[in-house]
Design brief:
Strand order of the largest sheet: 2-3-4-11-6-9-12
CATH class of the largest domain: Mainly Beta
Order of helices and strands: EHEEEEEEEEEEHHEHHHHHHHHH
Protein name: Helix-turn-helix transcriptional regulator
Keywords: Transcription, Transcription regulation
CATH architecture of the largest domain: Sandwich
CATH superfamily of the largest domain: Jelly Rolls
Largest sheet: 7 strands, antiparallel
Distance between the termini: 35 Å
Shape: globular
Helix content: 40-55%
Organism: Mucilaginibacter pallidiroseus
Number of helices: 12
Strand content: 25-35%
Structural class: alpha+beta
Pfam family, one: HTH_18
GO molecular function, one term: sequence-specific DNA binding
Number of strands: 12
């Protein structure tokens, strides 16, 4: 569930306000010189929220949910910084980010007035979309963090219409749902066009992809971002993401997560503490590690040694 933090704000008061915003919309939360306005609506496992931050000081928003599997955030004004613990990036107006929640948590930070249109997908919604369009849904719901431009694409007008519709009184659910499906359809088309492109891998590219795999495996605690990994290996972003998945059967982030969980399991079978294991495999927060581990293996880290005995 999202919580909002700021150096000069009461976490409890703002946290309660944000929690209520997911049960009743719209809502406005004011504290000192800051204000957070939220409009939201749910469609069978897909949530659409429009967050408007009006603040003169730093503010952050934490997401930590087992139900939310995938998040997309469209910056309508201002800019936002995202930190998943593994990847960090800044998104400006006209761009959007997509984040697979295998890492379970991510944090958004704002330093000036910002409007963010956010879509969240629960497991049930992703499974339904995958069954209906299994050929291209993996393109939308890819691992890791991706940042792309939307302003000058066919998605731009649709996103603006969704942002207006969610604030309308009363909210026209049928119209809003139709626009949401239109947006997803545009992304499916985009994914289809991307998959039809010729990757054009050569021997040098394959060597560089193996180098990328080695870099990921040697930096579990402090992994590179996709941009950094591409720069270090001399691959462009597209070839890195598509080539890594084609060659090794997993995305860069998925491969990193698998290595972390495998090492964590081995350490736990040797009676290492959960806090120690979380730190060794690159998690700053033991709770985030616990949720990620349970998602991977279906049990809590603390249960590993018990099952062994």
């Amino acid at each position: 569930m999202p919580t909002t933090n700021s150096p000069n704000h009461s976490k409890h008061n703002l946290h309660q306000g944000v929690r209520k915003s997911f049960d009743k919309a719209p809502v406005t939360i004011s504290k000192n010189r800051s204000e957070l306005s939220v409009h939201k609506i749910w469609f069978k496992g897909i949530g659409v929220c429009c967050w408007t931050f009006d603040a003169d000081e730093f503010k952050s928003l934490d997401f930590d949910s087992e139900k939310i599997e995938f998040v997309m955030g469209f910056v309508l004004s201002g800019n936002a910084s995202i930190n998943t613990g593994e990847w960090k990036a800044t998104i400006s107006k006209g761009k959007y980010y997509s984040c697979n929640s295998s890492a379970v948590t991510h944090q958004l930070s704002f330093q000036k007035p910002t409007t963010l249109l956010m879509m969240t997908f629960e497991n049930s919604a992703i499974e339904k979309l995958h069954n209906e369009s299994s050929q291209y849904s993996p393109v939308i719901f890819a691992d890791g963090v991706a940042i792309e431009e939307y302003r000058f694409t066919a998605m731009g007008p649709v996103i603006n219409e969704i942002a207006k519709a969610i604030k309308a009184k009363p909210v026209k659910r049928i119209y809003l749902e139709a626009k949401l499906l239109e947006l997803l359809s545009l992304q499916l088309e985009k994914g289809a066009e991307t998959d039809e492109e010729d990757l054009g891998f050569n021997e040098t590219d394959i060597q560089r992809l193996h180098e990328a795999k080695l870099i990921v495996s040697q930096n579990l605690q402090t992994p590179c971002s996709l941009i950094e990994l591409a720069r270090k290996t001399g691959l462009n972003d597209f070839k890195l993401k598509k080539g890594f998945k084609a060659l090794f059967g997993a995305t860069v982030f998925g491969y990193l997560n698998n290595l972390r969980m495998e090492q964590a399991y081995k350490l736990l079978t040797n009676n290492a503490t959960v806090g120690y294991v979380a730190e060794v495999v690159g998690y700053k927060n033991a709770q985030h590690f616990t949720v990620a581990f349970k998602k991977k293996y279906g049990i809590l880290p603390s249960q590993v040694s018990k099952n062994k005995s």
